[in-house]
Every structure is written in C-alpha cells, then in structure tokens.
Amino acid sequence: MRALILSLALALTPLAPALAVQPDEVLPDPALEARARELSKVLRCPVCQAENIDESNAELSRDLRLLVRERLVEGDSDQEVLDFVVARYGEYVLFKPDASGTNLILWLAGPAMLLLGLGAAAVYLRGRKSAPEPTVAGLSEDERKRLAEILKE
Amino acid sequence: MIVELGHFALVLALAVAVLQTVVPLVGAHKRWATWMAVGEPAAVVQFLLVSFSFAALTYAFVTSDFSLSLVVMNSHTDKPMIYKISGVWGNHEGSLLLWVLILALFGACASWFGGNLPPTLRARVLAVQGSIGVAFLAFLLLTSNPFLRLAEPPLNGRDLNPLLQDPGLALHPPFLYLGYVGLSMAFSFAVAALIEGRVDAAWGRWVRPWTLAAWVFLTIGIALGSWWAYYELGWGGFWFWDPVENASFMPWLIAAALLHSAIVVEKREALKSWTILLAIVAFGFSLIGTFIVRSGVITSVHAFANDPERGIFILLILAFFMGGALTLYAARAKAMEAKGVFGIVSRESALVVNNILLAVACFVVFIGTIWPLVAELLWDRKLSVGAPFFNAAFSPFMVALAMLMPFGALIPWKRAQIGRGMAPLWPVLALSVAFGALIFAMQTGRSAVGPVAAALGLWVVLGAGVDLWSRTGRGTIGNRLSRLTRLPRADWGKATAHSGMGITLFAAAAMHAWQAEDIRVAQIGETFAFHGYEVTLNAVEEVEGPNYISTMATMTLAANGREIAVLQPEKRVYPVQAMPTTEAAIDYGFTRDVYLVIGDEQENGGWAVRSYFKPFANWLWIGSGLMALGGLFSLSDRRYRIAAGATRTRAMAQPAE
After folding, report:
1. What residues of chain B lie within 8 A of the CB of A103, using their CB?
2. Which residue of B has its CA nearest to A109?
C-alpha cells in the first residue's frame, strides 16, 4: 500500500521544488476536494518545521495529500482519514491535539484560568466596593512633604 | 581596524553598564546625590558605545568585509545595498546587537526625558535598565560575538537567506525589537517602584508612555511581519500561530493589558500590585520570546540559530530577572494597597475584565506554544499544537473582548448603571445586529463566522464613535462638533485604537470565511474564469535579477471583459543559497485582493497557476495601522508626553489632573 503511494508519488513529483497543492492532485469531485483541503490544514508536515501539508512543498507532504485524497475517495469519513494518518505517523501530525488524556490540561487551561481570574476579580471588586472612602486629608507625611516641594517649585 | 574598535566599544559598554547598575543603586539606597547622578551619563555613554559598535558592524556589511565571519555567512557582493544593511540584523549575532542597541537607546531616553522623576526613582530605573544591559552585553560577548575574524577570508559571501531579502522583513525586526525591548522600561519602572516601596498615580503616568510606545512598536512590527508572510510565502496566509509569531504576540497582549491597568493606577490609584505584576510579566514574555527565537527550542520556520548553549544562557537571564523581580514582588506587593473605591459596574471593573480577558488569552497562547515541549518532557508524547487549536481556544477571548469593549469604554468611573451605560449604545447594537443578519441572508449556505464578525466589527467601530461623541457633552450639534476637535488626544487615541481593533478582528474573520482559491494547469494564452474575474496567462519568461534568476509570468486580470490589471507573479531561484522563493503578484483593492502565483511547468505543457481571492485583506493592515496610530495619538497627549521633562516647571505646576 505504502509502496504503491510512494511509487505513485515519485512518478508524479516534478524534480523542481513543488508548490503546495499541485493541479494534478485536485480531485474531480469539488465536495470531496474541499474536505481534502480542510483535512490537509489540520495535518502537519512531518519533515517541515511548522507547516501543514496543504502549504508545504515537501515531497512527504505531497504523499500525505495524495493519501488523504485516496482515503476520501474510498469513502472514509474525516475522522477515519485522520485516524489512518495518525496510526502511521503518530499524533505529531495533528495540529489540533486530541482533547484526551493529558491533553485535557491543554484544552481546559484557558477556561479554568478564566474562571479563576473572574473569581479573583469578583473578590477584589467586592472588596473595593465596600472599602472606606479615603479622605483627602489622608496624605502620609512623605506625601505631604512632596506636595509642598512640588508647590514650591 | 574599525571592526576591532567596534568590538572594543562593546566591551567598554559592558563595563559602563556594570557601573550604571551598581553606582546609582547604592546611591539611591544611601541617598548620595552624586552617586545617583551617575546613572544618567552612564546610560548615554553606554548608548553611544553600542551605537558605535553597531555602526562598525554595519560598515563591515556595507563594504563586504569578508574577513568577518558574520559577513561571510550572511552577505554577498551582488546583494542590493538595502539588504546589505538589513543583513546586519538578519542573523543571530547582529540581531542581538540590535537588541542591545535598542535597550541602550531606551536607557538613554530615560535619562534624557526622565527629568521629572524623583531622583531616587530615576536612579533605580536607570540601574535596573543597566543591569539588563549587563546581562545581554555579556551574552553577546560570551556566546555570540558578531566581530569574529576569519584567518583566511573567502572571496565572496554566502548571501542572506532569500526569504529575508525583502523590504517588509528588513524593517520587521527593528520594530519588533523596539517593542520587545521597550517593555524593559516598564519592567525597570516596576522593579524600581518595588525597591522604592511605593506606587502612586504619578508612577502610573510615568510608566504609561513607555508601555504605549513599546506597544505601538510591537503592533507595527507584528503587522509588518504578518504583511510580509501574506505576500511572500506564496499562499496569502497572514498568521500561522508559529511559535515565533506567538513569541511576539504574547508580549503584545500583556502590554495591551498593562496599558489599560496603568490607566486605573493613574486615575484611581487601584490595581497597583496587579499593574506591577503585568509590567514584570510583559518583559518576561519578551525574554521568553527572545529565548524561543534564539534557542530554537521550539523549532519553527524562523529558527535560524539553533544553539543549546545560547538557549541556556538566555534561560539563565530569564530566570535571574523574573526570579528576582517576582521575589521582590512577593515581598513588597502587600504594601501597595489600593485607594480608589468603586462599584461592581464601573469603568474600573470593565478594565479589570479587559485585563482578565487579555491575560488569559495570552496564557492560552503561552500554554499552546510550550505544550509540545511539556508533553515531550513529561510524557514522552510527540505532538503538535497549531492553528486549529489556537483558532478554537484563543478566538473566543477576542470575541468576548470586542463584545464588551464599547460598553466598558463608555461607562463612567466609580459607579455606573448598566441601563444608563447602554442607552446611547442600543441604536448601534441594533444596527450592527441588523447588518450581520443582512450579510448572513446575502451569503447563502456559508458559515456564520463572516456575518458575526461583521456585526462585531461594526459594533466596536460605531461604539468607539459613540464614545467619542459622548465626550463632547451636551449642546447643539455645532457646539459639540467644535468640542470634538478640541478633545484631548488621548480620547482620539482610544477611539482610533478601538476601531482599529474592530476592523482587524473583522478582516481576520472575513479572510477565513470568504476567501476563494483556484488551482489549475493553464496553457500560455489560456483564459479561465475565477470568482467573477477572468484570468489570462499571457507569457512566461526567464528574467535575471541582481542576485537571482526569475521565472516570471505575465497575467491579465479582467472583469466582464474589462482589463483591471496586468500582474507578474515570479518564481525566483537564488543561486548562492540554492533556494527558491515565490513572489506572488497581487492586485490590491479596497474590499479584496486578487493574489496570483505561478507554479511549475507541467510535463505535458502548461503551467501550474494558483489564484486566490482575499476579501478585506487590506483591512488587516488598516486595522493594525489604526491601532498603532491610536497609540501614537495617546502618546502625543500632553498629559503623557515623554518629553515632559523638557518642560519641567510647567509640568510640575499642574500636578495630577
């Protein structure tokens, strides 16, 4: 299977650096192609630095794009395609990590922090609301000295 | 010779920085006026020395002095002059020298414009600023010396990475660094205030212009980088949530929060310890950003200097400054008790919510950026966090911010009522929702992202207008119009920056929701239809540039048979670095860009051609530009003028308004 894709890819890949999605990769069915593009955007190119396979020029990305399209043509759902790719290349290729296991921390960190922040703010604001109004005469000795200095100048 | 002098000046600058750190700090502690006064000349001298050193390196680049290893690695005699100059900071060593130069510049500015600061605070600010200088000068000299000579100079250099040979990217790093490093001033002020043990309204007023300036520079720097990515990388993406982009975005978010909380300190003497914490953390994120970029610990497109030794050094700097500042904070923060009293619904509370949203949004970006590292270290899981995560986890915070912004900006200080605050906003809200609904009805069968963003953007922009108008008080329209022109610049700055935020938000969502794309093989002479336009591939030819060879296509863009533009997308190869780049050709328009890219020649004839329809692309840069402009307006408000020291007596005669 993989050998087939590889030979297919080698036959199709031009020698010059390719530029992301090539015209010959595009599926005839626009709905299927649109799904392929969306899936390509959440898959990371395994040999590039921080590019998805849709934007990447690497040969491996092209292989992956062809693989995604092949699975879609065979009738896989989006999730099945992703599972298929992850099973071969590991979860490293997913740009949107699964919200499972330890990754829950990643996904819940924002909302948890927001609740914490709002809670702390509520306590603070209640404190501010009931705090005694400071009197104008409430200047410290230092402040009074500085005020005098400023006024002298 | 000049190169050696440059190196020597750098060593001297380190010595001066040590002096600038120790003497004023001791002086301020012992109240010795003469010792305290050392800070100012030292800061200026340090700046002059680093400037000389930077000029020496620039000279070596301009004259293509290939006895310098850095010049060999990053320059070439055929390179256009502007890129010989920008090549100075297009590499690790040079960009750090720029970092240090800007750091010294801010220190010198503090000494030039800090005339109205109390002497002890001024001395301490300069000392802290000096200590950052010590750390980075040592880092530069010990691990990244830009002045290393080669025993056998080659005949020519290896050229600059062709992606970096671009006017947008020539300017991107200096602006970004002005922003990053500008936050060091907020940090110095915060640490100095902690040492002093007092934070008052005046402190809020002093720290705000520096933060504002840093934030404006960061905004411009980020926008330039995003614009560069848009036209240079060849598919019109403008934001990738790349770790290095995040590194610049995190300080921006915190600086935005700091700007707003400093207002509360200044006007109401509340949120003091929180503001101090933000000032420390903002610079912390600048250091983390430097660490991410310079160490390559989280590999990304930008990491042109992967070196663990440098990474550890920066980590030590980070640990020292953050550890030190936060320890000091823990010891002293209790002393900063708030004075202002305000209700649950008030401008103060609105700004607290603004701060929570910005800080948590920054936290989300932070955890997303470091998560791959954490997962690998702790659980040996190799995973990636990219755009789809950030779009889902970060965007809600910006949406919430935009929803609350017009209301929060309008309600009065101390005590407000929801009903009263909303009164002038109801028509605006109704109009925005109706506008969104209209757009939703017009675009059948697409996601609601576009219409929602349009409604939100309009709400924010009109809300900013209502805010400005309400500042003119009561009276006839004519009276209010004339009052409008006399409003303080800070009011105009606020309205401008807020509407810029609304426009940027809308443009980013519009790009996501409404862009169209076409990939095909076109024969020479072929015309194809694309999103209401006709595109013709007229010719493809080889063209030779100064230091590259280009495959240039000539294409015609037409609508309804009328020609709109002739576009020439290119594909370049830079032989020295053997690296190809794409140069998209863009027809810029007010409501859309048409973006054409030429691909490879196909085996069976014809060329791969990519066409993109980018709705409201320009609005992204217009929006960011407005945010920066708003910052500049506020900065020029006489109440915040950095140069207040120049008009010292006048400024002193009218204290805290």
Report:
1. 375, 383
2. B364
